[in-house]
Amino acid sequence: MIDWRATARGAVHGPAMTYGLIAVCCLVFLLGPVSGFNPVYGTGDRLLAAQSDWFRRWGVVPAELMSSEPRTLLTPLTALFVHGSWLHLLGNMLFLSVFGAMAEERMGRLEFLLFYLGCGYLALLAYAAAHATSEQTLVGASGAISAVLGAFLFLFPRARVTSLFPFLLFLPLRFPAWMVLVFWFVLQWLAASAAGPGPGVAYLAHVVGFALGFLYAWGRFARRDRVKAPAAATEGERQP
Q: From CA 150, how far away is CA 42, in angstroms rounded?
């Protein structure tokens, strides 16, 4: 668990796009058959069938996507707004709210939105390509949110976040963002190496998304920061 107030403090204009993405994901979940709040989907076996159809229609099915059917080409985009359970939704939205605010402030709203959707699409596409024969449906914003984490690592490595670790008796401890995020990435990498194509968490999408986010931030902001630094130093030398 992370204290989002500490990380979002630098957002001056408000993370409107971050909150907008969270709102859309929550609305889609509440209106869909998984939340159980929409009576149109019925109950019992009828509800289970509706959930299965929902995931297959809007989620990524690697075997179908790799067959290049036109209908499936948008599924890596629609799948970003579909979640499989309350826990799945709340976990993803927590991470997005924590790390999205400052990333959006640095990138700007439109660029952040395109970055989020583009990296999320590519992360799910990479997972589908690696499991091209799988019939398992893939849903969730994890690939896009992992990209946000990767960008955050490059942009704000020294930001302090409060984390709770089970093996430390859930004591709230503050660590630099680089330590928390690198630890998280290593766990995803190890899990992806051991995971198969069957049901479960798509750790490979997390790894790809994180790498894409970090590389994008590095390519987008590293050169600009290097140009600004000498200019600032020169200006400082002119001061009496």
A: 41
DSSP secondary structure letters along 169-207:
TT-EEEEEHHHHHHHHHHHHHHHHHH--SSSS--HHHHH
Amino acid occupying residue 60: V
Helical segments of 41-85, H only: 44-58, 62-65, 75-78
Q: What are the φ and ψ backbone dihedral angles of 174, each rounded to 5 degrees?
A: -100, 130
Q: What is the pLDDT of residue 8?
A: 45
Tell me: the pLDDT tens digits for 208-237? 999 999 999 999 998 765 445 444 433 444
- Nearest Cα neighbor of 184 from 155, 145, 136, 228 is 145
Cα distance from N-terminal residue to C-terminal residue, the chain:
48
Contacts (Cβ under 8 Å, ≥6 apart) of 96: 18, 21, 22, 141, 145, 148
Render pLDDT for 7-23 as a digit per residue (tens, 0 to 9): 444 444 579 999 999 99
- Identify the bridge partners of residue 164 per DSSP, sorted by sequence position: 172
Q: Which pLDDT tens digit goes with each residue over 37-69?
A: 999 998 899 999 999 999 999 999 999 999 878
Task: Residue 205: name the closest of 149, 127, 153 by CA.
Answer: 127
Phi, psi of 176 (to 5 degrees): -65, 145
pLDDT beyond 60 at 104: yes
* Distinct helix (H) and strand (E) counts, the chain: 10, 2
| CA distance linking residue 218 with residue 88, whole number of Å | 29
Segment 158-187 shows an average pLDDT of 65
